Amino acid sequence: MKRKKLHSKGRKVSKHTSFSSHNFEPLEALDLSKINNFDELTKAMSLTAFGGRELGEAVDVTESMVRDKDCFKVLTLSGAMTMAQMSLLICDMIDNNMVNAIISTGALMSHGFVESLGMSHYKNPDGVSDEKLRQMKINRVYDTLEPEENFDAMTSIVREVFKRVDTEKPTCSYKICYEMGKYLSENMKGRGIFKSAYLKKIPIFIPAFSDSEIGLDFALFNRQRKIENKKQLYFDEFLDLEHYANLVLKAKKTGIFTIGGGVPRNWAQQVAPYLDYIRYHIIDKADPSKYFITNKNSPYYKPFHYAVRICPEPAHWGGLSGCTYSESISWGKILPKSQGGKYAEVLCDATIAWPIIIKAVMERLKKKRSS
Fold this sequence. Notes:
- This protein is of the alpha/beta class.
- The protein has a single domain, classed as Deoxyhypusine synthase (Deoxyhypusine Synthase, 3-Layer(aba) Sandwich).
- Helix content is 45%, strand content 11%.
- The protein has 14 helices and nine strands.
- The strands form two sheets. Strands 6-2-1-7-8-9 form a six-stranded parallel sheet, sandwiched between helices.
- β1, α3 and β2 form a beta-alpha-beta unit.
- α1 packs across α14, α3 runs parallel beside α8 and α7 crosses α8.
- The longest helix is centred in the C-terminal third of the chain and has 21 residues.
């Protein structure tokens, strides 16, 4: 999407410079007297510098991705975002058609499920030691608390959800998440991530399923069935991989919006090299002359066309969360800008940048509909 210039047409350029002849885009001072909403604020920030410009450009890329009707949009989530009260922001993205698939840590989805059941997280008060919190059966994540009784209530409900799963067929995370969304839709009035995804038919994938309260509840459920001499549920994580890969294979374009990094980000992005492996090893029968794909219109050529990530981790630590999109290009996961790729990276706490970006995009979409 071509962004409108916010600077005045009559703006003077110093006679001592030749920048105008090189078509350099001038920056513009942030004038709050001309700003009335998040849309205008982020457009103005895109003409500033440093983190402000990053955030403004992230709004532009996100808007382009959302408006592209050919784009299959993937949201990846990591970190304690639901404990940090970002659950309804995720619901807003689902409800406003900004997402076609979600890939998340299991812990994040577990905390979100707790809130969907009407339970709360709390501020960590001063003067209470972690030893004391342990005695009170309260878990701490930085400045936020999760009572164990939340998980106890979730366990009893999740157990009922697992009873719906067919023991004669292998299951996986997106199928279990569907059942959890269905349960909430049938039994709870409030909003929730699983419920919104269920109603919009958006699959939720949890690649590291066993690394979460939901995963532990699954294991507990199977242990109990073993004691009762009942058939256990069989979990096949490759059902998730193949379903996700098939969704991406069918898409004309793909886009990714990432909070943090970790397993969800890598699992989501590795679909591009996975499809290329299928093409090379199975379709082209490992012919060395066909190692590099030449047909960019092939359904097996699927680097992400759009990409936005919000994460404070720097690249020099070497972790996946801090990996730049430029680095991802070397793996074939992100489409280079030279081929039309659009990406933006915001090195910031997601609880600060994420709400601003989504609110600005929502305002732009609303303005478009009303115009």
